Amino acid sequence: MSSMTFGQKPFQVIPPEKGAFPLDHAGECKSIMVSFMRCLHDNKNVNAYCREEARQYLDCRMKNNLMAKEEWRNLGYPEFDEKLQNENKS
């Protein structure tokens, strides 16, 4: 029997906007992820208090090719882009 009924449009799968990324099977970023999760737990899941831990986790994933390299301002860290630019000028 067909899963389509009359008048329904067929379901179309849409990939995520940034694409899929591999899981960290080797545990390369596990300690940083645990630190981030601990921060969230300690701060009642208010992620604003854990921005630095989240940034470190994203940085680890980018350095280990577990996600595409992205500019920090596109990930919500515009101040970190400015800090890196100032360090490179020195």
Task: Please describe what this structure looks like.
The chain has a domain at 30-85. The chain is built from three helices and no strands. The chain has helices at 30-42, 51-63, 78-89. Helix 1 (30-42) runs antiparallel to helix 2 (51-63). The longest helix has 13 residues, at 30-42. The radius of gyration is 19 Å and the shape is extended.
Distance between the termini: 69 Å
Give the averaged pLDDT, no decimals: 84
Q: Hey, roughly how much beta strand do the residues contain?
A: under 5%
Query: Structural class, from secondary structure content?
Result: mainly alpha
- Fraction of residues in helix: 40-55%
Number of helices: 3
Spell out the helices and strands N to C: HHH
Rounded radius of gyration (Å): 19 Å
- Strand segment tally: 0
Low-confidence stretches: none
For the report, how would you describe the main beta sheet? Answer: none
Shape: extended
Pfam families: CHCH (PF06747)
Protein name: CHCH domain-containing protein
InterPro entries: CHCH, COX19
Subcellular location: Cytoplasm
Summarize the structure.
The chain is mostly helical and 90 residues long. The chain has helices at 30-42, 51-63, 78-89. The chain has a domain at 30-85.
List keywords for this structure.
cytoplasm, CHCH domain-containing protein, COX19, 3 helices, mainly alpha, single chain, CHCH
What's the layout of helices and strands?
Blueprint: H1 30-42, H2 51-63, H3 78-89
